[in-house]
Amino acid sequence: MPSLGRLHLITDTRPGRDSLAVLRAVLPMAGGELVVQVRVEDTATDREAYDLARRVVALCTPYAVTCLVNDRLHVALAAGAVGGHVGADDLPVEAARRVLGPAAVLGATAREPGSAAEAVTAGASYLGVGPCHATTTKDGLPPAIGVPGIRAVAEAVAVPVIAIGGVTAADVPELRAAGAYGVAVVGALSGVADPARAAAELIGALTC
Fold first, then answer.
1. Is residue 24 annotated as involved in ligand binding?
2. Where is the Thiamine phosphate synthase/TenI domain (predicted)?
C-alpha cells in the first residue's frame, strides 16, 4: 500500500471553481505529502466523475502522488486510482475493501471512537474525521466535533487520522498535538488566490 501523505486535497467541483488548475499549482511543490481525493457533486454522472478522475490520475502520476476517489469505487478502479474513500452513506467499509482489494488505500469517515474502531477492523487504511469546524463546502454535515473530537478518535485507533472540516494552516499545530496525522481541505486551497503558497504553508505546519 502506498505511503499516506499528510495533506489531502479534495477536488472542489462547485460552480466557479477549477479543481484541475488548483491541482496543477500545488503538485510541483507538494511532493509525497500530498494525497488527492476526487470528489464530485452528487448530481454528477459517473461519466463526469470518471473523466475528472482520469485527468487527476494523469496529473498525479508523474509526481508519484496518491490519488483516491470518493464514494464511487467503480470509478476509482476504472480510472486507475490507488484507492477510494467511503462515507457513512456509501458502501460499508468491509464491502468497500472487497471491491478495491487488499492492496488499495481505503479511507473511511468517522466522528466518534466506536465507529472509528469498527471501520479500522473492517479494513480502513485511514480515517477522515470531522467535521472539525463548521464548513460550507458540503451540505448536510453533522455538528462540528472540534479538536476534542479529533483527539478522542485518534486515541482509539492505530491508523492515520485525517482531520477535515474548515481546517486552515493555523489549526494544524493543535490538531497534530491532538493526534491527527494530517488534514483534508477543500476551500483552504480552492478558495484562495495562491493555492501553491497555501499548500506550502499547510505542509510546513504538518511536517515541522
1. no
2. 7-189
